[in-house]
Amino acid sequence: MADRHNRDIDRQLAPAPEPLPVPCVDAHAHIEIVANTSFDSPEVRTVIDDAARAGIDRIVQVGYSAEQSQWGANLAALYDGQVLAAVALHPNEAPVVEDLEADLAIIEALAAQPRVRAIGETGLDYFRTPPELRARQQESFKWHIDLAKRTKKALVIHDRDSHDDVLSVLLEVGAPEKTVFHCFSGDVEMAKKCIERGYILSFAGTVTFKNAPALREALAITPIDQILVETDAPFLAPTPHRGALNSPAQIATIVRAMAEERNADLAEFATALSNNAERIFGSFAAGSTL
Fold first, then answer.
1. For position 248, which CATH number holds?
2. Among 13, 96, 99, 196, which residue carries the largest CB count within 10 Å?
3. Does residue 151 fall inside a structural domain?
4. Domain count for the chain
5. Reported pTM
6. 210-218, long-range: CB within 8 Å, 24+ apart, which pairs?
């Protein structure tokens, strides 16, 4: 994963969008890759300030390794009131780490921190993980599900080319009360299954892509209280900036496109998404706990 991330930081940052009329939340970002530096650096402050100028005043910083999850927990503690953290081993990370048990112990310890409000991103990824490593990936997914239930925190799922198995595992072991499909990539039929089971669908910049009509169809049928919005920054910058380096500020662009797709009032829609994020992750307010 590190090589992929290093390639991504070489791109030009997407231009600042027109600010939203009301504040909103980026439910999934990787700020350490956008800024490519320490959590307490001026570059990180710039990313967060740029987002706030666009109306994005709260961000969920999401983990994919033990080291980076610690980075995210540190960031959330420093930016108390603006940032919450999720911690986990990414499904591509879990099968290949040198000492899985040691890394999982780090994740479990981080999960106890008050500004860590979700376990993720975990899940299954059959695009990058070969068949011989998938059993280990599935076991890691189940471990993270159990941790989310034990800590009563939201579960953030990465699902790539593995829809059926992700849904099957959730049925097998029981999904946490708050289960989020990060960067939802399924079709209408999968969306219907997720909606019926009470899962949350988080839409990223991919919903704006010309080649993603199925995502827009899924967005159109999803009840408003089961929707989140995210950037997955620095990846998946929305149209018209596809291919650029994404940042949390681009939530403004994505929310506009989503509201238009649903024929919704922009301010009302953005407010509903904010309310959903606070319900799922808890209050972002300084000093708040679950």
1. 3.20.20.140
2. 13
3. yes
4. 1
5. 0.96
6. 210/239, 214/186, 214/187, 214/188, 215/184, 215/185, 216/261, 217/187, 217/188, 218/184, 218/186, 218/187, 218/188, 218/190, 218/191
